[in-house]
Amino acid sequence: MEALLNEWLWQEEYWLPPGISWQDIEMKEDEGRFPLPRDLIYTLPLAFTFIALRYVFERLIAVPLSKHLGVKDRIRIRAASLPKLETFYKQKNRQPSQIEVVSLGKQCGVSQRNIQTWFRHRRNQDRPSNTKKFCEASWRFVFYLVSFTAGLGSLINTPWFWDHRECWRGYPKQPVAEAHYWYYILEMGFYLSLLLSVSVDVKRKDFKEQVIHHIATIFLIGFSYCANYVRVGTLVMLVHDSSDFLLESAKMLHYAGWTRTCDSLFVVFSLVFLVTRLVVFPGRVVHTTLVVSLEFFQPFFGYYFFNALLLVLQALHIFWAYLILRMVYKFVFLGKVERDERSDESEVDDEEEEPEGEGDECSWEQRKGTINSKLASLANNCVLNNLTNQRNINSRLPKAR
Q1: Alpha-carbon distance 237 to 161, whole Å?
Q2: Given this model, what pLDDT does residue 152 score?
Q3: pTM (global) more than 0.85
Q4: CA–CA separation, 32 vs 340, rounded Å?
Q5: How far apart, in whole angstroms, are the C-alpha atoms of residue 232 and residue 290?
Q6: Other beta carbons less than 10 A from residue 184's beta carbon
Q7: For the residues 348-358, what does the mean pLDDT come to?
Q8: Does residue 176 sit in helix, strand or coil?
């Protein structure tokens, strides 16, 4: 297996610029740490550690904090126990068509309206509570805040933080500081944990984009570490963490019902996101990897692959910026942010919706009777008004004569 990896995966033309071999970048112990692919093996157990820490954090810290801040969960009606409908719900479709409703009604001996009501209550039953969404947001907030603070503290005194040409000076033989090594390992372990738990987290409208983002981020971190793109990689992670903790804190306040504070914080997040993701990221980070790096080495596979992943992230930034600008528009012209454009797929409760039962004769007769009574009342009012007007006219005729 090792020979196969060395022959196919670790070929020098994939990872290193032309004319440079693995022997050329070997470093002695006194020269510092050099990134090795085997270091990334530790990120997998670290991901499971993050999942365990999250479980403890949510129950010991996040849940009590949600109660203290006043997070309230909606009381939902539980669907009745009907095994046939439960099997259909889990295995086939959560929103059956009219034909399926008719068929299920015949199988269970229940009216079509009751079938539709059961599915509506069952969908509401599976919707995540505000407490669950608050716990998820608070966990991400804590990590992004700590990651951004630690990353900024480790990078602010480095030369490549101010001059991006320093990202490539001496490449690829660049030692990695201990702080940047842990910055990489912890970030990759965290995103692995997000990818592993994506099936149980709150699913939002941009669920597919989130999965693509996590996968692209993991490949980006892993490849940049193996190819020793660590200097520019730390800048990429810092740019992303700078706005992420603001978004998660705004979500926490939203679930707690702190509307004014949430709206104000959302405006701050929008400004930071638009500046960092649409100005700083493409103007400085992507520019230095696409253009400035060519002053120091000739393009190779790693150059194209790394920049392709950065462009995927930039495309996602544009997509999210569009959603954010829509919310800013609502905030400016409507006075408040009515609902998160990235809200969960089933965020809008439909318990109050009354579906039209095409075959429900009883409900149709009731509606027809109601309509007839209203029409009769309207007709009576019209007749009375006409008689009153006629009486008034007759009373004025003698005076006119």
Answers
A1: 12
A2: 94
A3: no
A4: 47
A5: 12
A6: 23
A7: 41
A8: strand
